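Methods — Computational structure assignment.
A single polypeptide chain was analysed. Its primary sequence is given first, followed by the predicted tertiary structure written as structure tokens.
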Amino acid sequence: AIAFAILCHSLVSFNFGQPAILITLGFYIGQLNKRLNPKTALPQQCFYKPLYFSCIGVTGVVFSLWLSSLMSGFYLQHQSKIAPQPMQRIRYLLQAQKWVPFMELYDALIADVTVTLLSKPRPQGVTTKGYQALYHIALTNNTSAIRENALRAHNYQIRAKLLSLQANTPVQKQQVIDNYQKAIKHDPYAIQTRYRLAGFLLENGRTKEAQTTLLNGLNRKYYADIQQGIDYLLRLKKVLMPTLTSTQRKQLNQQLE
């Protein structure tokens, strides 16, 4: 039952290493039990009995070590949530990553926290080398998170925010836009991602594309929250106004009122 529950969870989290260990150990123990069954085992297989108990012991040790590493990772992740400083959160998550490598969740969290830190004004005393080291940590972990789970929209949003910090050329700026669009593709209802893409397009003089981005969101369920719906319409109005004629502006104001 535990193996089945972990297998079901892995289908969502894409952490197939967890059930793979349990299934492999279970298959191995099943084969040993089959060989040791007195009704089916051949006489020459009797020497398997000492080996069986040895294998059971080794299996128990392996499983215990794997479970303890998993629990250590969960504990460090919890500690990162309550840590007051971003650097402390990153350290806890890096430790958790060592206990449970290839965990997409930890890669995504490290990238998220690091990008949030990089997006703030650079604290006094932080060198360019230190800033680039943090940027590399974020980029490496975000790349791993996308490779391990290519369907999580948040990973593409974080990548877009990260790339926007050093987007100076047209190619780099297009990479930012492409990643925001991938995030919207995987989660069309992520209103903040749509805002960020529209804002980035406006900053780079691509007003028409920003308008299209927001207009395409009108058929989404952004209006379950009335205040959120009003905010969305006001943002759309702000983007549309510069390109409208005086008559069109008047009509738009009347419709919104």
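Note: The chain has twelve helices and no strands.
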